[in-house]
Amino acid sequence: MLSVQLLEKLELLLLKLQKSCQTWLTYLQTVICTISLSAGLGNLYRLPQSAVLNGGVPFIAAYLILTVIIGLPLLFLELGIGQLAEDGFIKSWRVVPFFKGVGYVKLLAGCLLCIYYPLLIGLSLFYIVWMAKESLPFQECAVVKITS
Protein backbone atom coordinates (compact mmCIF):
# COMPACT_ATOMS: atom_id res chain seq x y z
CA MET A 1 0.00 0.00 0.00
CA LEU A 2 2.80 2.40 0.85
CA SER A 3 4.71 1.60 -2.29
CA VAL A 4 1.70 2.36 -4.51
CA GLN A 5 1.18 5.73 -2.81
CA LEU A 6 4.87 6.47 -3.09
CA LEU A 7 4.87 5.63 -6.80
CA GLU A 8 1.85 7.87 -7.39
CA LYS A 9 3.57 10.75 -5.60
CA LEU A 10 6.71 10.19 -7.66
CA GLU A 11 4.69 10.21 -10.88
CA LEU A 12 3.03 13.49 -9.89
CA LEU A 13 6.40 14.97 -9.03
CA LEU A 14 7.84 13.88 -12.39
CA LEU A 15 4.89 15.40 -14.24
CA LYS A 16 5.39 18.69 -12.40
CA LEU A 17 9.08 18.65 -13.26
CA GLN A 18 8.37 17.95 -16.92
CA LYS A 19 5.89 20.83 -17.11
CA SER A 20 8.20 23.30 -15.40
CA CYS A 21 11.27 24.75 -17.07
CA GLN A 22 14.45 22.74 -16.94
CA THR A 23 16.74 23.78 -14.12
CA TRP A 24 19.67 22.34 -12.24
CA LEU A 25 18.74 20.16 -9.29
CA THR A 26 21.33 21.61 -6.92
CA TYR A 27 23.39 24.76 -6.62
CA LEU A 28 26.58 22.68 -6.83
CA GLN A 29 25.60 21.36 -10.28
CA THR A 30 25.13 24.93 -11.49
CA VAL A 31 28.52 26.04 -10.16
CA ILE A 32 30.42 23.04 -11.56
CA CYS A 33 28.82 23.34 -15.00
CA THR A 34 29.43 27.08 -15.13
CA ILE A 35 33.08 26.70 -14.16
CA SER A 36 33.62 23.89 -16.65
CA LEU A 37 32.12 25.94 -19.47
CA SER A 38 33.94 29.16 -18.65
CA ALA A 39 37.38 27.76 -17.79
CA GLY A 40 38.41 26.14 -21.04
CA LEU A 41 41.54 24.29 -21.99
CA GLY A 42 43.14 27.56 -23.07
CA ASN A 43 43.23 28.78 -19.50
CA LEU A 44 44.93 25.60 -18.39
CA TYR A 45 47.79 25.62 -20.85
CA ARG A 46 48.22 29.30 -21.81
CA LEU A 47 47.78 31.16 -18.52
CA PRO A 48 51.01 29.96 -16.83
CA GLN A 49 53.07 30.83 -19.89
CA SER A 50 51.38 34.22 -20.25
CA ALA A 51 51.98 34.95 -16.58
CA VAL A 52 55.70 34.18 -16.86
CA LEU A 53 56.13 36.19 -20.06
CA ASN A 54 54.11 39.21 -18.87
CA GLY A 55 55.37 39.88 -15.38
CA GLY A 56 54.15 37.12 -13.07
CA VAL A 57 52.13 38.30 -10.07
CA PRO A 58 51.04 41.69 -11.54
CA PHE A 59 49.74 39.88 -14.62
CA ILE A 60 47.78 37.38 -12.50
CA ALA A 61 46.38 40.25 -10.39
CA ALA A 62 45.27 42.16 -13.51
CA TYR A 63 43.82 38.95 -14.98
CA LEU A 64 41.78 38.26 -11.85
CA ILE A 65 40.58 41.88 -11.57
CA LEU A 66 39.45 41.94 -15.21
CA THR A 67 37.79 38.56 -14.77
CA VAL A 68 35.77 39.90 -11.85
CA ILE A 69 34.97 43.25 -13.50
CA ILE A 70 34.20 42.01 -17.03
CA GLY A 71 33.90 38.22 -17.04
CA LEU A 72 31.52 37.64 -14.14
CA PRO A 73 28.95 40.29 -15.18
CA LEU A 74 28.91 38.84 -18.71
CA LEU A 75 28.49 35.34 -17.28
CA PHE A 76 25.58 36.44 -15.09
CA LEU A 77 24.06 38.35 -18.01
CA GLU A 78 24.16 35.26 -20.18
CA LEU A 79 22.76 33.02 -17.44
CA GLY A 80 20.00 35.53 -16.71
CA ILE A 81 18.99 35.92 -20.35
CA GLY A 82 18.92 32.16 -20.80
CA GLN A 83 16.84 31.65 -17.69
CA LEU A 84 14.46 34.47 -18.59
CA ALA A 85 13.97 33.31 -22.18
CA GLU A 86 13.72 29.60 -21.25
CA ASP A 87 14.94 28.81 -24.73
CA GLY A 88 18.12 27.95 -26.58
CA PHE A 89 21.01 30.35 -26.92
CA ILE A 90 20.09 31.39 -30.46
CA LYS A 91 16.48 32.31 -29.69
CA SER A 92 17.25 33.86 -26.31
CA TRP A 93 19.40 36.59 -27.88
CA ARG A 94 16.57 37.59 -30.24
CA VAL A 95 14.96 39.49 -27.36
CA VAL A 96 16.96 42.54 -28.43
CA PRO A 97 17.09 42.74 -32.25
CA PHE A 98 20.53 44.36 -32.10
CA PHE A 99 21.99 41.22 -30.47
CA LYS A 100 20.27 38.52 -32.54
CA GLY A 101 23.56 37.60 -34.24
CA VAL A 102 25.22 36.79 -30.90
CA GLY A 103 23.51 33.39 -30.77
CA TYR A 104 24.84 32.45 -34.19
CA VAL A 105 28.35 33.57 -33.25
CA LYS A 106 28.14 31.40 -30.13
CA LEU A 107 27.03 28.47 -32.27
CA LEU A 108 29.97 28.99 -34.63
CA ALA A 109 32.39 29.28 -31.68
CA GLY A 110 31.04 26.05 -30.22
CA CYS A 111 31.52 24.24 -33.53
CA LEU A 112 35.09 25.52 -33.81
CA LEU A 113 35.82 24.36 -30.26
CA CYS A 114 34.50 20.92 -31.18
CA ILE A 115 37.22 20.79 -33.83
CA TYR A 116 40.00 22.32 -31.72
CA TYR A 117 39.61 20.57 -28.34
CA PRO A 118 39.84 16.96 -29.59
CA LEU A 119 43.15 17.87 -31.24
CA LEU A 120 44.57 19.06 -27.91
CA ILE A 121 43.20 16.05 -26.07
CA GLY A 122 44.64 13.71 -28.71
CA LEU A 123 48.06 15.33 -28.46
CA SER A 124 47.93 15.06 -24.68
CA LEU A 125 47.01 11.38 -24.84
CA PHE A 126 49.76 10.74 -27.40
CA TYR A 127 52.28 12.41 -25.09
CA ILE A 128 51.09 10.36 -22.10
CA VAL A 129 51.42 7.09 -24.05
CA TRP A 130 54.83 8.12 -25.39
CA MET A 131 55.91 9.02 -21.87
CA ALA A 132 54.87 5.58 -20.59
CA LYS A 133 56.78 3.74 -23.34
CA GLU A 134 60.10 5.56 -23.39
CA SER A 135 62.11 7.84 -21.22
CA LEU A 136 61.60 11.49 -21.92
CA PRO A 137 64.44 13.51 -23.44
CA PHE A 138 64.40 16.02 -20.59
CA GLN A 139 64.19 13.40 -17.83
CA GLU A 140 67.94 12.95 -17.58
CA CYS A 141 70.50 15.70 -17.44
CA ALA A 142 73.37 14.91 -19.74
CA VAL A 143 76.79 16.12 -18.69
CA VAL A 144 78.27 18.40 -21.31
CA LYS A 145 82.05 18.39 -21.46
CA ILE A 146 83.62 21.57 -22.69
CA THR A 147 86.95 21.09 -24.36
CA SER A 148 89.20 23.85 -25.48
Automatic annotation (TrEMBL):
Transport recorded as keyword: yes
Signal sequence, start to end: none
Entry's family note: Belongs to the sodium:neurotransmitter symporter (SNF) (TC 2.A.22) family.
Chain positions recorded as Na(+) binding sites: 43
The protein's name: Uncharacterized protein
Transmembrane segments: 24-45, 57-77, 107-130
SUPFAM superfamilies named among the record's database cross-references: SNF-like
Record PROSITE patterns: NA_NEUROTRAN_SYMP_3
Cross-referenced Pfam families: SNF
Compartments, record wording: Membrane
GO molecular function, one term: symporter activity
Alphabetized UniProt keyword annotations: Membrane, Metal-binding, Sodium, Symport, Transmembrane, Transmembrane helix, Transport
Entry's Gene Ontology cellular component terms: membrane
Entry membrane topology: Multi-pass membrane protein
Origin species: Cryptolaemus montrouzieri
